[in-house]
């Protein structure tokens, strides 16, 4: 008998109760049987187009019941699936598709053709455990999108579709997912994970039309959603200035950049016991989580990112966190050097500094890598610095992170002018936007005569961070 492989548990869930609502888009309600039939037609169309185990399929889709069906169908035929990051500059998009060895790009037009294909029988997951199931591409702010690889075996090991394997924090979250507000593409790793968890918990996916907090929560009577740190700050401020009825809200899953304990406590006070604070990475998935009940019972927990489930191992090596999780990635697509640095003997090097207290709570203390987390996306400082320094009017350029109420963190640049030159800061920002995309654009550029040095003689970025936050 063939072993159950991802996404078979989700396919089975859709066929188990055909009349159950699973997706809501305005006045349109899509039931499980309809979604299952759409998966069957799209899978048949993909196979007819040559897709199967090992075939590269890229998804360029938004938020819809059909996009969910296409995502499940691409996995069901055993393809190597990747979602295209939004807002990629055209040159980076073309480069990504070439490097990813993509045979088919499923956009809205092609999806319509696939949906017109007659189904050829029940859908049975055809993925091979050792094959690459998903390549999750970064935004490209490192200068070039980087693809994080998960096998079908890893995705099969994920706990989201299996209530009997939910960790305690996830089990506490699941009943709150009655109406999960979807605010990003379903091919996105975090969005899809909580969508699957919602379906397994008996909830409904609700398309945000248009997106935006708090209006979307109120309009759609949402009970849960994923929210970035910047948008959480905006929601708290909006509730303080113009309170609105958020009585349906039961869970906000904070994603992206670090959340200061004082701001987390404020969010719990203003929004109520709905904020789930956690820690995860594309390479490892969820590493730790704290529930609102834990944080309200013991405010000291707000200084952590929660506890790791029993099935997740966390070690501290020379101050850096290393982890092992059931569904972790196995490397980076086409990048053996970076793979060797991060994936070591079954462990994932997080490149985050931290420790674990005697109760098992994980605390983050900083980063071993030079990045800024903007709207839950990594912006690597080095490429931004190189683009800025390419300008003839710039002698030196340094980038640091600064807290930001809109994006969680923002890029702040310090520039030393070339002798006798006066850099045009607007032109510098435009140069970064053109080369690396809008996420990497500095929110501000400060001209300085010189950069402070650390005792090692290297530029002291800690001193620049302190200067940026004054």
TrEMBL record:
Keywords, sorted A to Z: Ligase
Any one GO molecular function term: acid-thiol ligase activity
Source organism of this protein record: Cellulomonas flavigena (strain ATCC 482 / DSM 20109 / BCRC 11376 / JCM 18109 / NBRC 3775 / NCIMB 8073 / NRS 134)
Keyword Acetylation on entry: no
Every AMP-dependent synthetase/ligase domain range: 16-333
Protein name, entry field: AMP-dependent synthetase and ligase
A Pfam entry, by short name: AMP-binding
Residue ranges of every copy of the AMP-binding enzyme C-terminal domain listed in the record: 384-458
